[in-house]
Design brief:
The protein has 450 residues and is an alpha/beta fold.
């Protein structure tokens, strides 16, 4: 926990210091949660929330007002949700953040999302794609027309992936136009349009105008409704390459979602070029990781999913000065589906059962999220536990291990390692003594305490 001097320091300086501290710790979000004691501040680092400080209730309103002010929100409105943005330079650091305010029963909750698109300028190779998936990505984005969808939950790096693709395609001979809500990154050489529903400037209306602007490539920030989906698909079959994002979990659910949005099957089957689904998993710290034997369940999963006998994998080893709890940063787990003629025919068949479509999708050359994650476990990039938490293991193993407790077996394995280490040491029992043993000193030192 970090302490701030609310009595003697200006609230503007405290707000700036909180943001700078969060940036220095690689936080992706700052949460200001109202509670009985005031305002609990938490940072999301590598996908995990952790306590940062508590703002006394006497200063809660002042800090909330300050954050809304620098986010260009209406400071007199505290009943309705509001969205804002912070683009500023504090202590020499250029900041680009999205801010959301929501009224709760204990006061306004504010969440600041810290945007970092540095990866998008480093090329496709920096996104964690395997060589096989990278070949598919290049094939997708080099076609002259079609629609490419980047899917995943909120905060899984979809925008970073799609911006990287646009940077790759951003050349003198191409006209790229985007319609976004909000514009998350300004890219030189690309025409970007901000949606404003309050004046009727919706995705659908902007898209209809974009088609008269002679574009080669179109980015739709997100497909949210049937109108946007239908216009996007129609734009892709009239000679444009269209990129967009959808909140779905995998390739199969993405196809089903578009069909549920009343996109005609014959249009979707001819327009869809590829789907990239992704999740984020914490990356193992390279400085303190260790090898350990696999559990029975892990062996079964590796054998079933990858067809490999795996007896040893990398895992966390506490933490060091370079990481927190054995992890440092995050890595994308990806599923890349390049649409084949067989899958196109299946999408166009209204009588084809879902199970058959699933079989066609996942017996093609696609590497599933689970397979990609397990491969990255074998490479020592992440841990099996991270994949277990983030990716559903949807196969016969679910029934076989229906009552299985992975955490318990993992703990038992660690206890066995401790016993094995102890058994290798010759223990010499001391002679009986009447002296009183020294009392151990207990400290409350916290390495993160400032």
């Amino acid at each position: 926990m970090v302490e701030y001097d609310f009595k003697n320091d200006e609230i503007a300086n405290i707000a700036n210091n909180m943001i700078i501290y969060a940036v220095s710790k690689r936080a992706s979000d700052i949460h200001f949660d109202p509670c009985e004691a005031g305002l609990k501040v938490r940072l999301r680092i590598d996908g995990v929330l952790q306590d940062h400080t508590v703002v006394p209730i006497a200063y809660q309103k002042n800090l909330t007002t300050r954050l809304k002010l620098i986010s260009n929100m209406n400071i007199t409105e505290s009943r309705l949700p509001q969205d804002g943005a912070i683009k500023d330079t504090i202590n020499g650091i250029d900041l680009d953040m999205r801010v959301s305010a929501l009224n709760t029963n204990l006061g306004e909750k504010i969440v600041i999302r810290i945007l970092d698109y540095s990866k998008s300028t480093e090329g496709l190779e920096s996104l964690g794609f395997t060589p096989k998936n990278l070949v598919k990505i290049r094939k997708m984005i080099e076609v002259p027309n079609g629609i490419i969808l980047i899917t995943g939950a909120t905060g899984t790096g979809k925008s970073t992936t799609v911006y990287t693709m646009l940077q790759y395609l951003n050349k003198e001979e191409t006209n790229i136009i985007t319609v976004e809500d909000p514009i998350e990154m300004n890219i030189e050489g690309i025409n970007q349009v901000q949606v404003n529903s309050e004046i009727g400037l919706t995705f659908g209306r902007v898209l209809r105008s974009i088609l008269r602007q002679d574009p080669n490539i179109i980015l739709i920030g997100e497909i949210r409704d049937s109108e946007t989906a239908q216009i996007a698909v129609r734009a892709s079959i009239t000679g444009h390459l269209v990129f967009s994002t959808v909140h779905t979990n995998n390739s199969l659910s993405t196809i089903e979602r578009l069909l549920d949005m009343n996109v005609e099957r014959y249009l979707l089957s001819s327009a869809l070029t590829g789907i990239v689904s992704q999740k984020l998993a914490r990356r193992l710290c390279p400085h303190c990781r260790k090898k350990r034997p696999t559990t029975n369940y892990e062996k079964a999963v590796f054998k079933e999913i990858l067809g490999k006998d795996v007896n040893e994998i990398e895992d966390v080893n506490g933490h060091c000065d370079n990481c927190r709890n054995g992890y440092y940063g995050r890595i994308a787990i990806q599923e890349v589906l390049l649409i084949s003629d067989e899958i196109r025919n299946a999408i166009n068949d209204p009588n084809l059962p879902r199970e058959k479509l699933r079989e066609l999708v996942y017996t093609s050359e696609v590497t599933t999220l689970l397979q990609d994650g397990l491969e990255k476990v074998l490479e020592g990039i992440t841990t099996f536990e991270e994949i277990y938490k983030n990716v559903a293991i949807d196969n016969e193993l679910d029934e076989k291990y229906a009552d299985y407790d992975y955490t318990t077996e993992l703990n038992n394995l660690e206890n066995e390692e401790d016993v094995a280490l102890t058994s290798d040491i010759d223990i010499i029992k001391p002679e009986p003594t009447t002296s009183t043993p020294p009392t151990p000193t207990v400290t409350d030192d916290d390495p993160d305490l400032i």
